Amino acid sequence: MRSDLVGILSIHGTALHGLGFDARAVVTREAWRDCAADLQMAGARFFDITAIDRGDSVEVILVLIDPPATHFSLRASCPNEDLRLDTLSDIFPPAEWGEREVFDLFGVEFDGNPDMTRILQPESSTIFPLRRSFVLEQRPW
User: Fold this and answer.
1) Is residue 14 over pLDDT 70?
2) Rounded distance, CA 112 to CA 70, Å?
């Protein structure tokens, strides 16, 4: 990874951990947006955004590409009591749809997203099917 990107991560209080397909940096929710913006300005490009339910929190994962081939993830955790994170849709426009998907499946709301509506489920839905707390009422098979 380029030294300027490593420097940006250190400015935001984190470092890159892991190698290869598992290279990742964990930031606070407060540093999430600024760190992503600085990485974008340095040339990192959006690849994907997703989440993992850790039980007591939901970890949001932004996957970035540092051209020509290096990729890494920027991660921030939201406690179950406050599933909110700042949007990155104005920094990385394709993130808008990914944020909506994370909202629809995990319940994380992205403050500032221009269309924070469900994308896969009906708007009337009250469930978040990829949460560990979600239990099927009946088996689908």
Assistant:
1) yes
2) 29
Structural domains of the chain, with CATH:
3-87 (3.30.460.80)
Neighbours of 27 (CB within 10 A): 20
Q: Which residue has the tokens 């929190």?
A: 57
Both tokens of 62, joined, read 């932004």
Q: Where are the beta strands (DSSP E) in 23-134?
A: 24-26, 45-53, 57-66, 70-79, 84-86, 109-111
CA dihedral 39→40→45→51, nearest 10 degrees, is 70
Q: Please name every residue paired with 25 in a beta bridge, in sequence order, or none if there are none.
A: 74
pLDDT tens-place string over residues 68-118:
778 899 999 999 999 999 999 999 999 999 999 999 999 999 999 999 999
pTM score, whole prediction: 0.92
- pLDDT (average), residues 56-61: 98
Contact 89, 112 (CB under 8 A): yes
How large is the greatest C-alpha to C-alpha distance in the chain, in angstroms? 52
